[in-house]
Every structure is written in C-alpha cells, then in structure tokens.
Design goal:
The chain has helices at residues 19-25, 30-40, 61-69, 80-85, 98-112, 122-140, 161-175, 182-198, 201-208, 212-215, 222-246, 255-266, 272-283, 285-303, 305-318, 334-346, 379-382, 426-443, and strands at 45-50, 53-58, 75-76, 151-153, 156-159, 356-357, 362-364, 367-369, 374-377, 444-447, 458-459, 465-466, 469-475. With 476 residues, it is an alpha+beta fold. The site of protoporphyrin IX containing FE has 29 residues, from helix 13, helix 14 and helix 18.
Length: 476
C-alpha cells in the first residue's frame, strides 16, 4: 500500500515494486533513472518501492541538503550485501547505526588525527610527497615487466590503476604504518572495486530478493561480493594479527595499536571483527573514491586544455619547479582548487551517496515519510540544480571563483554528503587529491594518447568509475 501523502512516483508492481521502472529508464545508472522519473512525475522528491520497502529520492539541492542534515534521516540501510561483507553483522562505520556507529566514528576520527589524518600534518605530507615522487619517476621511465598492465610505455598509463598503490599506502600509513610495493597492493583496490560494482542494477535485485543468491550467485554479483571482500579482509587480518604479536603499549605505531590499547584500558576482549571493519571502511574509499575522482579529473582537464593551461600557470607562479606543492600553497592556488571542486561537482564519484534510513515517521518537502524508508539524496541531480549552477553540463572551474579569481566562500556541492554522517575522510580526501594532482601537473602535461577527447563513459556501481582509460603524461 502506498502510504497516504507519500511522494509521487511510479506504482508498485509484483516482486521488485517500482524498481522495474528504474530499470526501464536506465538499466545501469540508477541516478540517471531516478532523475528521469523525477522529470516524468514533475517532482523534486520521488516516492518509490524497492520490493516491499518504501524509498524516497530527493532531486534538488535544497531537499537533498535537508535530507542529509536532519536527524530523522541518520540511519543506514541494512541489506544482504552489507551483512555479507561484515560476517553477518553490521560492524565498522559505513553501515553501522546507533551507538556503535557513533562510538567508532568518534574514536577513529579522534585518534587517526594523531597520525596525520584529516589535518595539516608534516608527517602525512612528507609521506604523500614520497609517494608523488615515486609516481613522477614512474611516469618518466620505461615500465618494468610487472607494471606493463598499468603502463604501456614511458608516460602511457592506465587510470586510476596507476594511482592505487600510492593511495593505499597513504591511508595504510595512518591505519597500520605499513608500506607496500604498488604492484602488490593494486590487486586489493581491484577487489574493492569489484565489490562496489555488485550494487549495480543486479546488486539492487539481490538486496530486494536475497534468495536470488542461491539461484544465480555469479550473475547477481553475490559470488564476487563474498570472494573479493574476503580477499581484502585476509590481507588486513594478517596485518592486524602481526600487530597483536608485536604490540607494545609504550609506543603506538598507528591507529590499530591505539584500538588495541583502548580495549586493554577498558579491560574488555578485543573485538577483532570490529577493528577489521573499521580499518576496511577507511582503507577502501581511498583507492576507490580518490582514485576514481582523480581519473575523472585528468579526463576533464585533457578534454579542456584551456583549464590545464591555467592550472599549469598557477602552479608555476605559486610553486615554481624547485619543490613539490605543499598544503600551505593551497590557499594561494584558487584555480587549482576550483578545478577540483568542478570535477567533484560534475561527476560525483558516489552519485547517490550512501543510502540513509528514516529512523522515525516524519515529513519532507510536505510529504509523509514513514519510518524505515530508504532515503537517497541524488547528488548527481543536485549538482545540476540550475538555480545555483548555470549550464551544469559544462566543465567550468570559474563558477567557483569571484570576479577577482578568489575562491567563493560558499561551496554548495554535497559530493561528500552532509550532517553528522558526512564523509569521515573529506579533509584527507581533499588534501590528498590536491597534493597528487598539483604535484603531477607541475611535472607533466596530460594528453589523450590518440589525440581525441577522452570518452567519459562510466561503469555503474555504488561508485562510478571510468571505463578503461589510458592517458599520456608528457614531461614539461
Ligand atoms: C572523492 C573522495 C570521496 C567522496 C566523494 C566521498 C563521499 C562520501 C559520501 C557521499 C559519504 C556518505 C555521506 C552521507 O551519508 O552524508 C561518505 C561516507 C564516508 N566516507 Fe567518504 N568519500 C570520499 C573519500 C573517502 C576517503 C578517502 C575516506 C577514508 C579515508 C572516506 C571515508 C568515509 C567514511 C568512513 C564514511 C562513512 C561515514 C559515516 O557513515 O559516518 N571517504 N563518503
């Protein structure tokens, strides 16, 4: 039964409810399907049924911000895929709820700061600089045999794969103080990506009708969800177990040590699954969120050479060639910052964010929203809200600058979500992306290998990614 005064939208059909209508609008990309249905029903707030579950999607910036910031929408959604990744439970941060979520989000953010996460830190900046220096050398030299899958010849590289090693190493420096050979850790980024892809159109089906996992586990992505998660978890479990063997309360090397120390202090047994899931929740968005945003960034500046010229000019003027860009340069480089903001606006890597759950009966936009409704802020649509951004399909960093070229104080984008469940890695993400892209652009001009514009064609999933994309880095 459609609740009284529920937002407008397609009817509920047998088995998958209104999901059939999403598939009909766009089989692969749900954010586009939802935007199209919004137009069809002439609404900025769409009411659907995913199987038997009511779901609501906001499509403009105002309603999306309201959804993300109101306490009634602070819950997360419990699905078979979410439980599959955390051993049948809801551990970690991403998909946890209530006191467990609150305690671990607060604890991890407070203590990861001590290792440079989410703040201005020389230790962290030096670590990233070493990784950038490695990348610069990698792009300037002929590839080794083992790297041919990400580098065909000098400077001819596959994105985002070429960034995966640096991104995983950077976040692991905080979590586990380990550094790996890029070739070795790239496979974990690939596995994380495969899991994120399970929640495409077919992953949606398995969440609504979990019995499909027994019928056709391969087709509906269940096999991959289990196998690829366990693969990353095994890698992290070995690191955690090594920490347990070598732990000393006199010197905490990283976040894992702090977590172990806290359980000792409280006199409770170590919840190793919880520790594993927290580490996993901070580890995998790094190659996925950052890696894919960086690959979009390079695709857009290759296709918009005038933007690349302006970015080069600003780096040369503010930093020069004698040292790598620092975080202190960021405030003096509004154009570089604006170009990154524009990339995050035009192609948000999580176009629907992470679904929220309504925790009590309420109203939104004048409509009734029952408890346990699945809530999506369609970030992709909100970033095309013409009341704020004119010609939203154009890649134009200037929209984030005033007439004097200064960065506008207010950034209306919501690519990192908002409110109390705002992305826990936002500061780290913005800092790391700034350092990597400005360091690389200081040293290279990026081009398309065949001289034609890069095709910005995305593969669906919870996060979007570019189809296999090779780019060319020419030393400046
Ligand atoms: C361009 C990069 C990234 C984007 C666009 C992004 C975006 C998002 C979004 C939209 C959410 C949901 C927020 C909400 O519900 O309001 C989220 C949550 C989260 N993100 Fe990110 N993210 C990025 C990178 C990262 C990185 C690098 C990390 C960690 C190192 C991270 C850690 C998290 C965590 C732990 C959550 C769950 C927060 C919670 O539920 O309390 N993210 N992110």
């Amino acid at each position: 039964q459609r609740p009284k005064n529920f937002p407008p939208g397609p009817p509920k059909l047998p088995l998958w409810g209104s999901y059939w209508f999403l598939l009909k609008e766009n089989y692969n990309l749900s954010h586009l399907a939802m935007a199209a249905l919004g137009k069809k029903y002439k609404t900025d707030i769409l009411g659907l049924f995913l199987g038997n579950f009511p779901a609501v999607v906001t499509l403009n910036i105002e309603l999306s911000k309201e959804l993300l910031t109101r306490e009634e929408f602070i819950g997360r959604v419990d699905t078979i895929l979410v439980r599959t990744r955390s051993f049948g439970d809801l551990k970690g941060i991403f998909f946890a709820d209530g006191p467990v979520w609150k305690e671990h989000r607060r604890f991890s953010l407070r203590h990861m700061r001590d290792f440079g996460f989410g703040r201005r830190s020389d230790v962290m900046e030096n670590f990233i600089s070493e990784e950038i220096t490695y990348l610069i050398d990698f792009l300037k030299n002929e590839p080794k045999e083992k790297d041919l899958n990400v580098c065909k010849s000098k400077g001819h590289v596959l994105v985002p794969d070429v960034f995966y090693g640096s991104l995983i190493n950077t976040i692991l420096s905080v979590l586990t103080s380990t550094r790996f050979d890029h070739h070795e850790v790239r496979q974990y980024a690939k596995a994380a990506l495969k899991f994120m892809k399970c929640e495409d159109a077919t992953g949606g089906a398995i969440c609504m009708t979990p019995w499909l996992r027994f019928l056709a586990p391969d087709y509906f992505g269940y096999t991959s969800a289990v196998r690829d998660n366990r693969f990353i978890q095994k890698f992290l479990t070995e690191i955690i177990e090594d920490h347990l063997k070598t732990f000393s309360d006199d010197h905490h090397r990283d976040f894992v040590d702090v977590f172990i120390s806290e359980t000792l202090r409280q006199g409770v047994d170590l919840d190793q699954t919880q520790l594993l899931m927290v580490v996993l929740d901070y580890m995998f968005p790094s190659p996925i969120g950052l890696g894919h945003t960086l690959s979009f960034y390079f695709a857009y500046i290759i296709n918009n050479p005038d933007v690349q010229v302006k970015v080069h000019e600003e780096i040369d003027r503010v930093v020069g060639q004698s040292r790598l860009p620092h975080l202190d340069d960021r405030k003096n480089m509004p154009y570089v910052e604006a170009s990154l903001r524009e990339c995050l606006r035009i192609l948000p890597v999580t176009p629907l964010g992470l679904p929220r759950r309504c925790v009590q009966d309420t109203t939104l936009g004048g409509y009734f929203i029952p408890e346990n409704t699945i809530m999506w802020a369609n970030i992709w649509s909100a970033h095309r809200d013409e009341t704020i951004w004119k010609d939203p399909e154009e890649f134009r960093p200037e929209r984030f600058l005033d007439e004097d070229g200064n960065l506008l104080k207010k950034d209306h984008t919501i690519g990192f979500g908002a409110g109390k469940r705002l992305c826990a890695g936002e500061t780290f993400a913005r800092q790391t992306m700034f350092l990597i892209l400005s360091g690389l652009l200081q040293n290279f001009t990026f081009k398309s290998p065949n001289g034609k514009p890069i095709c910005i064609d995305v593969i669906p999933g919870v996060t979007l990614s570019l189809k296999e994309t090779w780019i060319l880095a020419e030393p400046r």
